[in-house]
Amino acid sequence: MAASVPLGGRVVLETGRLVLREFARDDVEALFAILGDEEAMKYYPRKFTREDAVQWIDRNMQRYRDDGYGLWALVLKSTGEVVGDCGITRQVAEGEPLMEIGYHLRRDQWGKGYATEAARACMDYAFRTLAAGKIVSLIRAENLPSRRVAERNRLKVEREVMFHDLPHLLYAMTRENYGQA
Ligand SMILES: CC(C)(COP(=O)(O)OP(=O)(O)OC[C@H]1O[C@@H](n2cnc3c(N)ncnc32)[C@H](O)[C@@H]1OP(=O)(O)O)[C@@H](O)C(=O)NCCC(=O)NCCS
User: Fold this and answer.
1) Does the beta carbon of 76 sit less than 6 angstroms from any atom of ligand 1?
2) For residue 180, what pLDDT is reported?
3) What's the confidence (pLDDT) of residue 105?
4) Does domain 11-179 have CATH number 3.40.630.30?
5) Left if phi > 0, otherwise alpha if psi is -120 to 50, otherwise beta: which for 66?
6) How far is the centre of ligand 1, averaged over its atoms, from the C-alpha of 57 (Å)?
7) With a cut of 50, which residues of the chain have pLDDT below it?
8) Ligand 1 centroid – CA 151 distance (Å)
9) Can you give the pTM of this predicted structure?
């Protein structure tokens, strides 16, 4: 068991409608409401259990310690509710080390622009604060809503890669292109 953490971890980013803060163990039920929705998570190769949600939080708490970043809890300012996650994780695809922006939203919160807004803030953080040279999102070709999030934030398909034994589109934005916006 990890040490207990007070409700709501460190706030990392704020946008017009959202706060991104570090996950704490108390977020398990809110996170499981997102990851445990099989229809929402249909592009993932297996379903997620409540124990997976616990491990998801522990893994990200470890990332905060090791890297200083990870997937963060996405909180609606209007209600204080955790309705998703978004953040930056280190990944390796076909031998290339990558900095990935990922996002998951509870299904009743789709269609409001929250993922795009959060991902944009994470991209800005990656380039400005973490001095990233490139950020990516690894997305299954069938996952059109996720592709649209990346495309609204001007990421472009760089190539197709195998990731966790499945073909994914590697959407990317370079520091140079980001600066030219
Ligand atoms: C990927 C995922 C987060 C996208 O959710 P989403 O609600 O479509 O994305 P956003 O929150 O950015 O909302 C964008 C939609 O809201 C609409 N919208 C409404 N108000 C908006 C606003 N103020 N700003 C931007 N978009 C707005 C957009 O038109 C868009 O709809 P469209 O895609 O039909 O054109 C969601 O499908 C999900 O959680 N999937 C399961 C997890 C997953 O697959 N994650 C990605 C792994 S690669």
Assistant:
1) no
2) 74
3) 98
4) yes
5) alpha
6) 23
7) 1-6
8) 11
9) 0.95
